[in-house]
User: What shape does this take?
Amino acid sequence: MAPPTSPLHQEEDSVALLVARSLGGKVLCPFYAKCEELVLIDRRTMARRCHANPGRSNQSVSDLILASGATRLVCGFISPPDKLKLRAAGIDVRVGSCLRSIDDLVRSFNELPHA
Assistant: This one.
């Protein structure tokens, strides 16, 4: 197991979410490619790191997720080819409701349905 201060250890304890900005803050984005940001949240501390998605395409968001080192992802929707690509890279992909808070989705990751 990696030491607690290594980036790998931090990513193992993190959940990535595809989000959009709304008046009430950040919410789970219902559209895979159109998300505004990828947010990585540490499940122990709830610390957040945000990465913009300027490309707004399936390829750009997939590349962003893969480059982040995330091993868990929550999204509102994902196409079968994108899901297969991420699963092949070892990412556990789950689908969440856009009505739930980001923090709630992170806390309940293991109960969310697989994409």
